[in-house]
Amino acid sequence: MASGFVPAMRRTGLVLIATVVVFSALAAANAVPVGELSVGEIEEELQKCPLVEALNEHKRATIPETTSLTSKIFSVLFPGSPAVNALLATLYISGPPNFLLALCPPNIDPSSLSVMVAFAVGGLLGDTLFHLLPEIFLGEDSPEHVRFVMVEPNRNLLLGVGIMVGFFTFVAMDKTLRIATGGEGHDHSRSHSHAGDSQSQAVTTGAQQTSDNGLKRRKPTTTQQHEPSTSTKNEKEINPSVKLGGYLNLIADFTHNITDGLAMSSSFYASPTIGATTTVAVFFHEIPHEVGDFALLVQSGFSKRKAMGAQFVTAVGAFLGTLIGIAVQEFSGHGPDATSTGSDAAGAAAGLFGTSLTWGDMLLPFTAGTFLYVGTVSVIPELLETSKNKAVEIRKTVVQFLAVAVGAGIMLAISWD
After folding, report:
1. If the chain, 417 residues long, is cut into consecutive pieces of 10 residues, what is the mean pLDDT of each piece?
2. Which GO terms describe its biological process (predicted)?
3. Which of 25, 20, 60 lies closest to 43, judged by CA?
4. Distance CA 2, CA 10 (A)
């Protein structure tokens, strides 16, 4: 019977099958009215239906006996509970990218980051579209039994609100930073290019002064002896607005890391797969993000050592966000000891605006909204910047699109496997 119904399930869709099974299971068991059951209890009753049991047997019989390489790697990296795995993931995304800064020269060329940024865009958008959004609205599949989707319109609306809140939270952060810095946003490539333009203007001005004073070239000894000290003094005298921009960038980076920590906790409490893929996506994004912030701090007057120290301090924000997310998940009943008992019915009735959602359920949509902003509004404008050399720009665009495809492809491959 199972082999006959599986193709039909694929053709007609899971919702129709779920509707038929709900009525048949409840009618056969003479169960209490559906309105008095929690989502977990309805799932339990469905699993007792003969048709579902047959489908479960078919699923267990056709599941691959060997686990994939990515599953083995993730099981080693994340061996504990959702809370422990979230803390481990935060350590992974905060530690290595900051240690890599020791290998970066202070005068790093921002154009060298364009391919890495494109790769990060593909990873972030791939994780959002392939993992987070399906998980938010449909839930995670189980390897041992079939799952059914309970359509709850108001629940979906609140999840959409959570995504929008996450998106516009980053809009507000970016707007506030632009107002505080007089129009300069948290844009790494633009800040680097502005600094490069000011340096080139200084070189041009110096060249013009040298040509204007060509008649005084016979006095190079005295002037050249005093010029180094003067130039060194000018280099140390950083514009106060540039210094302010560096400190505001640290504040924005700290807040951004808090949202990364929330992403770690919410994703691992959703499922191990979502947690692992979110970690990979955030890790890919953190490397160019940290390098860009490091270069901005150096241009703001920080020494290389102080810039690295400041970046490590902002990494505390990621752990703070993770701890906040863990606390929200545990207090909302999503801990590892949470079970689908009769108390869940009361919890469902007391959910957000009469739905089955809790505050912990809203963290994952918030994360998806922030990822959408970072992957589109915040980063893609950097990839849209072009120069007048069309041949160079065409080659660079092709490489960037390939990098986006590779980043998204990795996310798709992990999800597919």
Report:
1. 43 43 49 61 80 82 71 88 94 88 74 80 90 85 74 87 93 84 56 41 42 43 44 51 73 86 90 88 86 80 87 92 92 60 43 82 89 85 84 90 92 79
2. intracellular zinc ion homeostasis
3. 25
4. 12
Domain ranges of the chain: 35-65, 68-182+239-336+353-416
Query: In sequence order, which residues have a C-beta less than 8 Å from that of residue 256 and are 6 or more positions away?
Result: 173, 289, 317
Query: What is the model's pLDDT at position 15?
Result: 42
130: which DSSP letter? I
Per-residue pLDDT, 66: 61
The beta-carbon contacts of 272-275 under 8 Å, at least 24 apart in sequence, are 272/74, 272/78, 272/85, 273/74, 273/131, 273/140, 273/414, 273/415, 274/131, 274/132, 274/135, 274/140, 274/364, 275/78, 275/82, 275/85, 275/86, 275/89
Alpha helices by DSSP H, listed for 271-342, are: 272-299, 304-314, 316-331
Helix residue ranges per DSSP H, 315-389: 316-331, 343-349, 363-373, 380-384
Neighbours of 275 (CB within 10 A): 25
d(C-alpha 128, C-alpha 134), whole Å: 9
Token pair for residue 406?
């590779």
> What are the structure tokens assigned to 73, written together?
């790697």
Residue 321 near residue 261 (C-beta atoms within 8 A): yes
pTM: 0.68
3-state secondary structure 12-78: HCHHHHHHHHHHHHHHHHCCCCHHHCCHHHHHHHHHCCHHHHHHHHHHHHHCCCCCCHHHHHHHHHC
Q: Dihedral of CA 172/178/181/182: which sign?
A: negative
Query: Which candidate, 412, 387, 396, 372, places its Cα nearest to that of 118?
Result: 396
End-to-end Cα separation, the chain, in angstroms: 28
Instruction: Give the three-state DSSP class for 395.
Output: helix
What is the three-state SS of 205-258?
HHHHHHHHCHHHCCCHHHHHHHHHHHHHHHHHCCCHHHHHHHHHHHHHHHHHHH
Predicted pLDDT at 398: 92
Element (H, E) at 134: helix 133-138
Go through the chain and tell me how many residues it has.
417
CB count, 10 Å around CB of 52? Answer: 22
User: What would you report as the CA-atom Rg of the chain, rounded to the nearest whole angstrom?
Assistant: 27
